[in-house]
Design brief:
There is one protein chain. This protein is 45% helix and 15% strand. By secondary structure, it is an alpha/beta fold. The chain folds into two domains: 200 residues, Glycogen Phosphorylase B (Rossmann fold, 3-Layer(aba) Sandwich), CATH 3.40.50.2000; 179 residues, Rossmann fold. A seven-stranded parallel beta sheet has the order 3-2-1-4-5-6-7, with helices on both faces.
Length: 394
């Protein structure tokens, strides 16, 4: 750690401690890597803050990662810790990750030692490991939430002896036999995703009349496959307009935005580009159809808003968990599944033309998606945290 960063981290730690009441209970959260881990944590934190107004909530994470931005926008205190993903193919990176893990654990212990921490909560990502280890050392109740049908390595490795592992899919239960309790809650998402705000969202986004609106997104990190196929789809529409016109909004992911923008020609009103969107609720509310990966958070949001979708599971996900996530929507008739290697502009053109020429099919898919929604996930997990807060672990 260089001196300037060490100084900035020390200042962050001092500021966080100065802002908190040492006489009120504290719950520490960690989540990182992708919005799919962070947004569920925020939903749980908001629910906990609503039901337990005297409880102080602090997030722990990397200062240079997406969790810092999302937590900051949500208004929760953010305590900097060190963490690096474990890369087993590189001895150098693996060694650096081990040292970062122990430094991060020490930083979490320093925070716990100075506050009346009652529980620690992790919702996925390597940044959870230092906090959960510190919580175990201090015999604090630990609660985990797993979003995916196939649990991540970090969640599985941290689950031994935790007070509760909350899961989103029933078939995930068998992976957590060493936990004291496993509870099926569903995946917590923000309450606004359960509200019908289609008309207002379309007005805010400038969508005119009955114009069809297609949202294409590869999640918070973006997807090269979806970017290329959607760009090709826009080119095909520009050359040969559809009999059922639609506008496409492609969310490229920040690291892909410049490349995609440079490659595109002028496709008129067919394609709008964004690198990232913070108004995902509005985007989904306005959409007639969504083209996306099958992250657990995305699937939960599609269900909550009753949105038909074309799901393109990320092929390199651990345990092929995105295909397993997608299965719930596909089996219910709420989504179409296209393998990553099969996605193309031509394939999308055929699928979209077919769906928009058959509105009854879209309506049936929307109803099927809505039937899968679980609106009480955040409340159920917050209740487990409250139960655990009074129980010191052995």
């Amino acid at each position: 750690m260089d001196k300037s960063f060490a100084k900035a981290m020390a200042q962050n730690h001092a500021d966080i401690l100065a802002s908190l009441d040492k006489n009120k209970p504290v719950v520490l959260f960690a989540a990182g890597g992708t919005a799919g881990h962070i947004n569920p944590a925020l939903s749980i934190a908001f629910e906990l803050a609503k039901t337990q107004p005297d409880t102080q909530i602090v997030f722990c994470g990397r200062s240079d990662a997406i969790e810092a931005e999302l937590v900051g926008r949500a208004g929760f205190p953010f305590y900097w810790i060190e963490a690096i993903p474990f890369e087993y193919r590189s001895a150098k990176i693996f060694t650096a990750a081990v040292f970062a893990y122990f430094r991060g654990r020490r930083q979490c212990l320093e925070l716990i030692d100075q506050l009346p921490v009652k529980a620690v909560v992790g919702t996925g990502g390597y940044v959870c490991a230092p906090l959960m280890a510190a919580g175990k050392t201090q015999r604090l109740p630990r609660i985990l939430h797993e979003q995916n049908a196939y649990p991540g390595k970090s969640t599985r490795s941290m689950s031994g002896g935790v007070a509760c592992v909350c899961i989103s899919f029933e078939n995930t239960r068998s992976y957590f036999k060493s936990a004291k309790k496993v509870l099926l809650t569903g995946n917590p998402i923000a309450p606004e995703f359960f509200e019908d705000t289609r008309a207002e969202a379309r007005e805010r986004l400038g969508i005119i009349g009955k114009q069809r609106y297609v949202l294409a997104t590869g999640g918070s990190l973006g997807s090269v496959t979806i970017n290329h196929a959607t760009s090709d789809l826009a080119a095909r529409l520009y050359r040969n307009p559809s009999s059922t016109p639609y506008k496409i909004h492609l969310v490229t992911g920040r690291k892909h935005y410049s490349e995609v923008k440079e490659q595109l020609e002028d496709f008129g009103d067919y394609l709008r580009l964004s690198d990232y969107v913070f108004d995902m609720h509005d985007q989904l509310a306005a959409a007639d159809l969504v083209i996306c990966r099958a992250g657990a958070g995305t699937c939960a949001e599609l269900a909550a808003m009753g949105k038909p979708s074309i799901l393109v599971p990320y092929p390199h996900a651990k345990g092929d968990h995105q295909t397993k996530n997608a299965a719930a929507l596909v089996d219910a008739g709420a989504a179409l599944l296209v393998a990553d290697q099969d996605l193309s502009g031509m394939e999308l053109r055929q699928l979209l033309d077919d769906l928009f020429l058959n509105p009854s099919k879209l309506e049936a898919m929307a109803a099927a998606a809505k039937s899968l929604a679980k609106s009480e996930a955040a409340s159920a997990i917050a209740s487990e945290i409250v139960k655990a807060m009074g129980n010191k672990q052995s």
